[in-house]
From TrEMBL, chain A:
Keyword Cell membrane among record annotations: yes
Bilayer topology annotation: Multi-pass membrane protein
GO cellular component assignments: plasma membrane
Entry's transmembrane regions: 24-50, 81-104, 116-140, 166-190, 222-241, 273-293
Keywords: Cell membrane, Membrane, Transmembrane, Transmembrane helix, Transport
Record family assignment: Belongs to the binding-protein-dependent transport system permease family.
Classification of source organism: Bacteria, Bacillati, Actinomycetota, Actinomycetes, Streptosporangiales
Name listed for the protein in its UniProt record: Carbohydrate ABC transporter membrane protein 1 (CUT1 family)
GO BP terms, alphabetized: transmembrane transport
PANTHER family assigned to the protein according to its UniProt record, in alphabetical order: ABC TRANSPORTER PERMEASE PROTEIN (PTHR30193), INNER MEMBRANE ABC TRANSPORTER PERMEASE PROTEIN YCJO (PTHR30193:SF37)
Automatic annotation (TrEMBL), chain B:
SUPFAM superfamilies: Periplasmic binding protein-like II
Keywords per UniProt: Signal
Protein name in the entry: Carbohydrate ABC transporter substrate-binding protein (CUT1 family)
One Pfam family hit: SBP_bac_1
PROSITE patterns per UniProt: PROKAR_LIPOPROTEIN
PANTHER family: ARABINOSE-BINDING PROTEIN-RELATED (PTHR43649), DIACETYLCHITOBIOSE BINDING PROTEIN DASA (PTHR43649:SF12)
Database matches in CDD domains: PBP2_TMBP_like
Keyword Transmembrane on entry: no
Superkingdom of the source species: Bacteria
Annotated signal sequence range: 1-19
Record bears the keyword Signal: yes
Length: 300, 435
């Protein structure tokens, strides 16, 4: 395919083959590059243009930064930003701490059938969106839901998980934690297993206890992995869409409206593609900002 | 982060998707013209039944009715419209809630049927429908098929137990008083609403209260009327009902169905489609249900309201618009044909000439031998005002639903919640607030 792109005249004149040792890596990369340009770079640039227009279909008209001005003045956008931030601040630390504990347990030689446990921990992150949504709406139902039934055994009154603005956010946090903890635990497990055993042996010879070994060997050795999961989880949460979409639809009273969900509603429910593209660019800026800040913190 | 394998996979799926999009090549040659129709079940069954008759009288045209499904059909049509009409069926079944959006935001997406003679049927359909299929340019972009006037389906046994004569209920305020007695004597709620709107909005009831007053979220000029006096009046009624403890919360899957099974919902303010839906859903409650026109908002006010309607449109990109319209004309404008569609697909016809059929006055055993359909024919004879959905209906619906949730969950003041909602709607859509 790539060879047909060459200009025959040039090959004939120079008598040089297009396939030389020097440019073969470029030729090999070319299909990926074409794919990137066609399916990633073009949409990114096109979305930039769309974010500066209004209307739909063939009737697009250029409006400059109108959509961005609208965004800054839109209370619903700020609500969605606030909700996303709140979920981020609450959910990510809980999930990562849980994942670390799980990884430590799964790495312990005291646990039998470790393979089975690891599979079990990872399974939730493979669950499809629809199955996941149906399952959680059954678990979280106010009447005769599994979770409320469990709580009732401890004398707790039924909680309206999806119908109250406060509890709906908690419900999203629970669902997210269930879905992604195992995924992070597997990453931590890989990190734990790459720590050289002799470090622990040397520390034991020096008389370090298990707490000391954890804080002085495990945590520093895991630092790059910890950072990776923090960055990945932050980006993932900022783009949060699936859980509020299937469980609450952003309600009640917009308490679980996230940036991505608001973007979706504007684009595909209200046909306001220009505004949706502007939201997408705002989200990109936020994600980039968080990513850079976290990388900087790591360097310090 | 794209790797080579990813790019290849992307390139492959891209090619496949392109190939799939380009699937509908116009037929050439002298064979019969084939037109495709997108609809959803059970309506599509009715249309498919008459399509066979149509093919016999029109040998040059083949009709393929496809049950795309609802809500899947909206995404399909939207994507087709955004792609300049590529891949759309020739005939599209479109609900009134989506039609103005397609008319406004995708100019040329739907064919102007006026050129094909649709104007001659201007007065053939239930009052209030024709303005909604007419564009700002005077073009006709759909033909009315289904019309859904609102009904007041009630449990006769529960009303009797509470000692209430439903015929005496003239206004919604009367209904609230009846609701209090019902709750006290039978434990049943008057109506149910998805209060937190979790999983989806529940605005049909609020909208029907607006429509009974000839009002809606927008007026004919497209200005925002969400904070108008009728809008506040309607929301105040809902708040009154909620404060009286006669509104059940039907959020959550199947909650409403369970309440109905248990006899905990005395009234279902549903539209004409429920005449066939309730007997299907609860065959064991045969004889318990009756239907009448809903009470008015104000004493002596209008009781009729058209909750919604659906239509058949011809896509602007169809190469066979004339043939497509011929089929639409055949299916929707002849009483005997549309009544066959009704019988097979349960779609209440918009064509007024259809109501002279005895089926519309026949007693129905499920409703205690009451002629249930006649209630709706009466409502349409009284006539309902046109509802102006506008191209921004989806956004208005969401914003109004948020206001209703605030009133029901947080006890917000209806006027304050609606004023806030109207301001937001006007800001988001750049539409004027009606004075």
């Amino acid at each position: 395919m790539t060879l047909t792109l060459s200009r025959p005249g040039r090959v004939a004149v120079g008598r040089r083959s297009l396939v030389t040792k020097r440019n073969i890596p470029y030729l090999l990369v070319l299909p990926a590059l074409l794919g990137f340009v066609g399916f990633k770079a073009y949409p990114i640039v096109a979305a930039m243009y769309i974010s500066l227009t209004t209307g739909a279909g063939a009737a697009r008209s250029f409006v400059g930064l109108d959509n961005y001005v609208r965004l800054v003045n839109d209370p619903l956008f700020w609500t969605s930003l606030w909700n996303t931030g709140l979920i981020l601040v609450v959910q990510v630390p809980i999930m990562l701490l849980l994942a670390l504990l799980l990884a430590l347990a799964l790495n312990s030689s005291l646990v039998r059938l470790r393979g089975l446990w690891r599979l079990g921990v990872f399974m939730p992150s493979l669950t499809g969106l629809v199955a996941y949504g149906v399952m959680f709406s059954v678990i979280l139902r106010k009447d005769a839901g599994l979770l409320n039934w469990l709580l009732s055994l401890f004398g707790v009154d039924a909680i309206d998980w999806l119908g109250s603005p406060f509890w709906a956010r908690i419900a999203i946090v629970i669902a997210l934690t269930w879905h992604y903890t195992g995924y992070n635990a597997v990453i931590y497990l890989a990190g734990l297993q790459s720590i050289p055993k002799d470090l622990y042996e040397a520390a034991m010879v020096d008389g370090a206890g298990s707490a000391r070994r954890f804080w002085s060997i495990t945590v520093p050795q895991l630092r790059p992995i910890l950072l990776l999961t923090v960055v990945l989880s932050t980006i993932g949460t900022l783009q949060l869409f699936d859980e509020p979409f299937v469980l609450t639809g952003g309600g009640p009273d917009n308490s679980t409206l996230t940036i991505s969900l608001y973007l979706y509603q504007n684009g595909f429910r209200y046909f306001d593609f220009g505004y949706a593209a502007a939201i997408a660019y705002a989200l990109t800026l936020i994600v980039a900002g968080f990513g850079i800040a976290q990388m900087r913190m790591q360097k310090r | 982060m794209i790797n080579r394998r990813g790019a290849l996979a992307l390139a492959l799926t891209g090619t496949l998707a392109l190939a799939a999009c380009g699937g509908k090549a116009p037929e050439k040659g002298s064979g019969p013209v084939k037109i495709t129709v997108w609809s959803w079940k059970p309506a599509s069954d009715g249309l498919a039944a008459v399509a066979k008759d149509f093919e016999q009288t029109h040998p040059g045209i083949k009709v393929d009715v496809q049950a795309v499904g609802n809500p899947a059909i909206w995404d399909k049509i939207t994507i087709g419209m955004a792609a300049g009409g590529k891949g759309l069926a020739d005939v599209l079944h479109i609900g009134i809630d989506y039609l103005p959006g397609y008319m406004d935001k995708f100019p040329g997406g739907l064919a102007d049927l006026r050129k094909l003679g649709a104007d001659t049927y201007k007065d053939a359909f239930a009052k209030g429908l024709w303005p909604t299929v007419t564009g700002k340019d005077g073009g006709v972009y759909a033909m009315p098929w289904e019309v859904n006037p609102v009904g007041f389906f009630y449990r006769a046994d529960l009303f009797k137990k509470a000692g209430i004569d439903p015929e005496k209920i003239q206004t919604w305020d009367d209904a609230i008083e009846a609701g209090k007695t019902l709750k006290e004597k039978t434990g049943a709620f008057l109506i149910g609403l998805n209060k937190p709107a979790a999983g989806g909005v529940d605005m049909d009831f609020y909208q029907s209260l607006l429509q009974q007053q000839g009002a809606f979220y927008f007026n004919q000029q497209g200005e925002v009327t969400l904070a108008s006096a009728p809008a506040i009046q309607a929301m105040t009624l809902i708040k009154k009902m909620n404060d009286a403890g006669i509104v059940a919360d039907t959020s959550g899957e199947n909650t409403a169905k369970q309440l109905i099974s248990g006899g905990k919902l005395a009234v279902l303010p549903w539209a004409a489609w429920a005449v066939s839906y309730i007997p299907e859903m609860r065959p064991e409650q045969k004889g318990l249900w009756r239907v009448m026109q809903p009470p008015a908002v104000t004493p002596g006010g209008k009781r009729a309201a058209i909750v919604n309607s659906t239509h058949l449109s011809v896509s602007g990109s169809s190469p066979h618009q004339a043939e497509a319209f011929k089929f639409v004309e055949y299916a929707l404008t002849k009483p005997e044909v549309i009544n066959k569609v009704f019988k097979e697909g349960g779609v209440f016809p918009a064509l007024t000439a259809a109501y002279s059929d005895p089926a519309f006055t026949a007693p129905q055993p499920y409703f205690g031998d009451q002629p249930a359909l006649k209630t709706f024919v009466d409502a349409l004879t009284e006539g309902a005002d046109a509802t102006y959905y506008s191209g921004d209906y989806a956004r208005a619906l969401k914003i109004a639903s948020d206001a209703q949730t605030k009133v029901l969950l947080k006890g917000a003041d209806p006027a304050a919640a609606l004023t806030e909602a109207a301001t937001l709607l006007s800001q988001q859509t750049k539409r004027k607030l009606a004075g």
